[in-house]
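Possible regression after last week's pipeline update?

I re-ran a chain I had predicted before the update to compare outputs. Posting the input and the new output here so someone can diff against the archived version. Not blocking, just want to make sure nothing changed silently.
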Amino acid sequence: MNRLWLALTSVIFLLLLAISPWAVAMRAFGGKGVLITIWGTLDLYGHARAMPDVSWLGYFTVFWVVLALVAAALAFVPNAKSRARYYYILGLVGLAVFALEAFLFYHAVWAANDAAVAAGARRPPLKRYSLSLGAYASLLYSLLLLMIGRLQLPGGRALLVRWRGVVVPVVSMLLAMVAGAVVVWILRDVKLPEHASLLNYYTAKLDLVTYTFQLLFGPLLTASGWFQSLLIATPLIFTGLAVAFGFQAGLFNIGAPGQLTIGAIMAMLVGVHLASAHWFAGLPYGVARAIFLPLSILAAAAGGALWGAIPGWLKARYGAHEVINTIMMNYIAASVFLFMIASNEYTFFGKWTLHMPFKFPGYEGRSYEVAQSARIPLMVNLFGFHQDASGAWTGSLSWALPLALVALVVAYVLLKRLEMGKRLLLALGASVVGYFIGGFLPGIPMHLSSRLASVRLNGAFIIAAFAVAFYNYYMWRTRDGYELRAVGLAPKAAEYGGISIAKKTILAMAISGALAGLAATHYVLGGGIDEYRLKQSLPTNVGFDGIAVALLGQNTPIGVFLSALLFGVLSTGGLQLDLQLGISRELVMMLQALIVLFIAAGGFLPRYFTDPILAAQAEEGVQGVL
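New output (post-update):
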């Protein structure tokens, strides 16, 4: 069976190499481009232009054909260690050749552009050039050979099972991408030059599919794309952690939307009304900021914790299921939210009138602005940039955040002999010292592009990073975290061991709710949408998206962070996909749904990747399991 799969993989690789575009010499708006294949050039743009010299591509094609044939033949080598060694050599050689191909291609494009400009062209004719599916297939095939080489050695499959928390999401994501590629292939057609062959048609269709995913993951290539992706990912990190925390304790917290809503209301009450109260009017700005900014953040967490603890108490006291309770609490939170923000005046029974101070005058449902002392600054401000009178963003890149991060990591590594709690506290203290020292150092003067500066990524992302660290420390480094996981895995055994199930249920739901409530800091205190207000357009749906984020992240802190970033990248890339190819952003929602579906199915991998007992046996190398 292994030999059959390797032969099938080699055949698929050679087919992709034969019919796929190897690179795109020039890409126009709308997706049309000049495609370079191993058979020649296919011009979908329709205009003559300078072309890079890729006459060497034929020699590399012969190399890849020979490499695929040799890889298939190696499956019949009897000695496992010899097979592993040969696959390692082929994989490493393949990676080196891919790097050489990429260098030669980009060098050829630059040479063609330089020659055209020297000949009198007003601007370089080749733009938005890139490698394409044929080149990417050779990269993936080389990586696959390295993995096959590892699988030949003893414990190879057990290693994959040990890393099942990564393997299952990656396989599920690849399956979702294949399904998405099929959808794009079916729904979108391409226009070809006259007298185009059937091979040209398949090449153009594969280019369309490849360009679709290049647009989806394109934000990873620009600074503004990273900022926009992190902007979308920040609330997903909070809600994903909230759901994952509940899962670890054996609870399904589906009430993150309501907990976020109450957290936003509490943040508004402190950040708008308490911080602007006349009692504190005489406070210096620095003192007011030191009081009301952390107080507003804590208020958001407290609101979410309260809204999570209520269904936790109902389950602990009466056995009411947390799914039903949290769903109902979502509706109650939404009603409270509308009651406070939709109108300033309510009349009851035609007699009594209630006046409320929360809504800002006007038709739109929104609060007053958060006080300056309670606002979370934008990341561009934290990095030392500001907007001048002309609207340009100037300043000096501050060393405060980089030094804080370096001090945190160095202190954490050097203090490894200390108890974990003291180690973290001292590392955080070193981070604070590094931040203040970096603030006094002279920065690097530079200008920011308006596109990057317009992204409203704010300091709530830093709070999210600390929430990830808290989740990891609390759940795996403390006694309470151990007890919560014990309750989630085996409640009867945990109760027999002296753990109070009722108390742990309430505690788990309260912490889960606090994490969800902190997502409100991004929207209300950080101005994540467009204003420092509580608005009726508060996107509470990120609470439900947190379920998908937690599942994709396998309920681990780093997994949640990476899956939230992935969703942020896909959402950002979906904007360009709609703009350039007219493909609806619903494709992104479909990919997210398929990822969750395939994870629920275990990536269609063998049962020992999903069954804990079989996985433990597989990691120990028990015969008959693998």
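Follow-up from reviewer: compared with the archived run. Residues 237-378+459-544 form one domain. Marking as no regression found.
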